[in-house]
Amino acid sequence: MSTQDLVPSPVGPVDVEQAEAALVERYPRLVRIAYLVLPPSLGRNRRVLTAHALVQRSLPRRRVTGPAVPGPRPAEDAVDPGYAYVRGEVLRQALVAGLPLRRLALPRRAQLPPLLPHVWGLRLFPRVGGADELALDQRLSRLSGPGRAAYVLRGLERQGDAEVLRVLAAAGVADPGAALAEADALDDREDGTAGAAPEGPDDGGDRSGGPAGDGAGSGDGPAGTGGGEPGSGSGAGRAAGRRSGVALLESDEFDPCALQARPTDLLRRRQHARAGVVAVAALLVCGALLGLPGDGWGRNGAGAPSYARNPAAEAALDPARLKRVDPAVWPGSTRQDFSVWPARGALVGDRALLRRALAVWARPGASVRSSATPGTPVGPPMGPPQLLFAGVVDGARVVLLHDGLRAVRYAEPVAGTAGAALDFARTDGADGVGSAALVLSRAAGNVRYLTAPWVAETSARNLLAPGEEARPLGRDAGGVTEPMTSPASARDCTRWNTLQVRDGSGLRLLADLGELAPARLLWGPPEAPADATGPEARAAWARTACQLTAVRAHGVRSVNAWRFARQPLPEGAGLGTWLCTRAETWRGTGSRVLAQFLVPSPAVPAALAARSEGSPACGVRDPRVLAGVLWQAPAGGWYVLAAGSPDFAALETSGGVKGRSDGPLLAVKAAAGARADLGGTLRDGTRARALR
To answer: How far is 602 from 543, CA to CA, in rounded Å?
Structure first.
């Protein structure tokens, strides 16, 4: 018989109250059904608790309407609607609990251990029965879940085969007929073991069940009368087997309401308790560590804890009080510097990011990578600073701030909480050119700049290729340039890119020396230098650019190269050139001076003749310079060459090489590796020594 041809069960509308009354009244039977249908592999303790949990979860949440069947039904199929509904839910959940767990599928609620009821420290199981109960339990364990349900419905609930098929189909069994066949096979085994069936051919009695009780299956009704013919030994034996199975199903072995209690493994419980205490303690410690500011973006990000509460200091750390300049201010301002830069970037409204940046500025934690140019104070701002930029650049959230003395760059990764960085650069006294750009990001050997609003055009120029045209460098609407190769961290000197900007008064050349503020490159005498954008300046810088590595990360504001002398070389080797390169710092002290000698060949880089730090030479205050070098002529002869600025009236050498000349130039024959002391006399008679 197909389940599609079955007559629907006569269960009418069910109220929650009706179902609850049926559950309370027949609770022991419902729990017994669940216990028998659940797989024995769960173990008796979990089967007991799961059976109670399934029954207690079987109440409907609202009024349930079932199909109505016109006409009378047999009394043996008449079931209380509330009980029928709860029994169906118990069967459905018990069958689901017996399904195997799948690796990629989420477990269903019935497959998980029950939360309630829950017993701590005890194992509960029904009373132990005899050998017959044990044998039946073993035979039931070999059946599938639907097979156990069919056996329980027919044996314990005394239902006919047709009703068993209907209940199984309603519980979600895919093949109720196969489940009923499993129950029949178990009945046959019980028949053989009982010895109640005489040998003889099976009469093939109908198992559909009916009012007249014909067939072997009609004996499941309340009257318990078999409908087979007297001579059908197989049907009589199967009925006897069912009666013996019913008695066993109702025994204490399968009653999860009459329970025995034993303690769990006491030694293992003690070990688990100790492990639990250790785990809780470790969890508390980890939670405390994760809550520390240095290990995550808390309210103050990577900032260290506050050490004092000062109203002025707290105001300086309030993102709502940051100074924000309107973009319409700078065109009408009488000054062009960082004070009129507008706030730009997509994250200028991100208060959480700005709060972290300010907190790290004031109190950088141990995990923050911090750097500062020499002579730059790294303390907190004295008042609310000015916001220049906040946005995402090259995979990092970047904030640029300015407090009138310093430019501060804060960066944190977009993904993760490790790697916050804080960079300081002194920028006090910056003019329009000194505030034309700031380094926004360095990544993968490239650099991006944030340009001033008055910069009209940007391009990249390679100092080592003076004959090449500058390459246009694009910018977005916020003034952020495209990336270009940076020489700041290069290990060799095969290319030296600079940023060329055009403002309202001309072209400027800016070099990245590893700091926030790029250095301005100049050319000319100390009293009147000009931007190194002309052909002569580019040709000279092409041979001296590699010497800029000597002033990296030194807080350099500008670098000026000055040709202070030209000298005819001995043996007709051509005309040599003497350059003095002076790097001025933002702090005013610590300037570095380089004296360089250039041979006539334009392909040969400049030779470093002397260097000095803190010297006023080649500067506005003292524009004089004197330097010498040991040079080998193309023909092989060695000479001491010396040159001074036009202020020198005479030069002389002593020590290993002796010589003298009237005027600012000197060439003396020398031996290879010779060393000499060089000095000179100024036009006013003052003695001066050479750079070393």
So the answer is: 7
